[in-house]
Write a structure and sequence with these properties.
This protein is of the alpha/beta class. About 30% of the residues lie in helices and about 20% in strands. It has 17 helices and 26 strands. The strands form five sheets. Strands 1, 2, 3, 4, 5, 22, 23, 24 and 25 form a nine-stranded mixed β-sheet that branches. A six-stranded parallel β-sheet has the order 10-11-12-13-14-19. Strands 17-16-18-15-21 form a five-stranded antiparallel β-sheet. It holds the Pfam family Amidohydro_3.
Length: about 525
């Protein structure tokens, strides 16, 4: 028998949670056709995986790459972690409804894309009229990753009733939103996401979300939520559980902080009571690094060239500004120190110091919002009830910022989410096979990606081959906090639908990624 590819002599972990074994795997026409201890087929290509671990491609259930892919479908930072599939449209932000003009306006207003990037995209014709034509744009450009998309509640609500409407939608407005949800689900969306700490999603009461979730449930879609943290983390988790129980919809709690282990317990109890629910967490994160010309990106849609008076007004609106950390200051006495410390030392106000820094000549000066290591995702070993919880997967919450200007806005550690998660779980005594299940077949089941998530015959050949002893990402921010290009190490091959996008450590733009809908459908 002849096939396209044989992977030989690897330690195969199939994603089911069962013990791994040494064997071979054969691929033909983008599908896995045979797995056994020894395969004697003839093949166009053979990869010797001796000493390496062969796994299903990892699935990132929480990414924000719907705009990044417009600029580049290369996705090196994912391929070097072994990720083959991402889910975008999270936290209530999506590329629907309506046209690209509507979406660009929303994304700029939310600070998720700069005016400069929006105008550049428009100049090169990156426009669409609706969800299907957005899919056409991405299919024509190509992508190295498989991608699935959620409908964003924030984008839907904003499109119908505006941004700051602290009220319930009228019956007519709710009917319009439900129509858009049904339309999006029919066109291939995986479900709906909320960002309940962001405007306008935060204005939606629980009953409003329940009605919308009912519309998604009819299509076997999922409800994912950046939860309403200001209620208290446990209370916000309980709201997500309430929505799931009221509708029967599958629930994904997004980027839950390990600082609230009782929230993870609540999710496990709900699952034991029959609710199909799971959770993702960020293993470790820095705050947002924003170059000084992007400090106000979330506060204004104006160009970065502002008058002193405009800057003075905007500074007053920055939350926790005294905790901003200064980097790239070209002055060692200022480096990695907070605005509060520096202001006290200089006997000036926090606002005056920020204004002085914004008006100096150093273009590269950068502010870190949230600290070099965020306290809610510190990268410390998990409590036992989190480490041993079978419903916990990793979600990077990766926002690529400006693809063509990576120093403008970035975060550390998100590009290493998968090796960091595996390391933290292994430190807590979790079997490697169980960890791999949580980042492959568990998210595949949650998002109804029925052709992915395990190494088994007939499944799509999304495969990663890893030197597991050297699979890593730097833990120490002191070595790389100025560098947004740090990548994970240890992945030798990342294979997408039977084709290697990462081959012996080298990235290839093969564009074999597919755009995924529910239950195995490819858009």
């Amino acid at each position: 028998m002849y096939c396209d590819l044989i992977i030989k002599n690897g330690f195969i972990i199939d994603g089911s949670g069962k013990p791994g074994f040494y064997g071979d795997l054969a691929v033909s026409q983008g599908k896995i056709i045979e797995i056994s201890t020894k395969i004697e087929f003839q093949a166009e290509r053979i990869i010797d995986a001796f000493g390496l671990t062969v796994c299903p491609g990892f699935i990132d259930p929480h990414a924000h790459e719907e705009l990044t892919v417009l600029s580049s479908g290369r996705f090196e930072e994912y391929l070097r972690q072994g990720v083959t599939t991402t889910i975008s449209g999270n936290c209530g932000h999506s590329i629907t409804p309506y046209s690209s003009d509507n979406i660009y306006k929303y994304m700029v207003k939310k600070g998720l894309i700069s005016v400069k990037s929006m105008e550049q995209n428009k100049r090169v014709g990156l426009a669409w009229a609706d969800f299907p034509s957005y899919i056409d744009v991405i299919r024509n450009k190509g992508t190295n990753l498989n991608m699935g998309f959620l409908l964003g509640h924030g984008t839907l609500r904003w499109s119908i009733i505006g941004d700051t409407k602290h009220r319930k939608p009228t019956a007519q407005e709710e009917s319009k939103i439900i129509h858009l949800i049904e339309e999006g689900m029919e066109q291939g969306a995986l479900g709906i996401s909320t960002g309940l700490t962001y405007s306008p999603s935060k204005y939606a009461e629980t009953d409003e979300i329940i009605e919308l979730a009912k519309a998604v449930k009819k299509y076997d879609g999922i409800y994912t939520s950046h939860i309403r943290n200001y209620l208290g983390t446990l209370e916000a988790v309980q709201e997500a559980v309430t929505i799931g129980k009221a509708t029967g919809i599958r629930v994904q709690v997004s980027h839950l902080t390990p600082n609230c282990p009782e929230g993870f317990d609540e999710i496990l109890v709900a699952r034991q009571q029959g609710l199909e629910i799971a959770v993702d967490t960020i293993p470790k994160s820095s705050g947002h690094f924003r170059r000084k010309d992007r400090l106000f990106q979330y506060l204004t849609t104006l160009d970065s060239i502002l008058t002193s008076e405009e800057r003075r007004k905007l500074i007053k609106r920055i939350r926790f500004k005294e905790h901003l950390t200064v980097i790239n200051a070209d002055d060692p006495s200022m480096e990695t120190r907070t605005i509060k410390e520096l202001a006290l030392e200089g006997k000036m106000s926090v606002n005056e110091l920020i204004l002085d820094l914004l008006e100096n000549d150093r273009h590269e000066l950068t502010f870190c919002q949230g600290g070099l290591i965020r306290q809610d995702f510190p990268g410390t070993p998990y409590p036992n009830n989190i480490a041993q919880n079978p419903l916990v997967m990793v979600g990077s919450d990766r926002v690529s910022g400006e693809f063509d200007d990576p120093y403008a806005w970035y975060e550390l550690f998100r590009k290493g989410s998968f090796p960091l998660f595996i390391s933290l779980c292994r430190q807590s005594g979790v079997r490697l096979e169980e960890i791999i299940r949580r980042i492959t077949s568990l998210p595949a089941q949650q998002f109804r990606l029925s052709n992915r998530g395990t190494l088994s015959t007939g499944k799509s050949a999304d495969i990663t081959i890893i030197d597991m002893d050297n699979y890593s990402y730097p833990f120490n921010p002191e070595t790389d906090y100025k560098n947004p290009f740090t990548m994970a190490k240890g992945v030798k091959y990342t294979i997408i639908n039977g084709k290697a996008a990462l081959e012996d450590g080298i990235i290839k733009q093969i564009n074999s990624g597919q755009l995924l809908s529910r239950n195995g459908k490819v858009l």
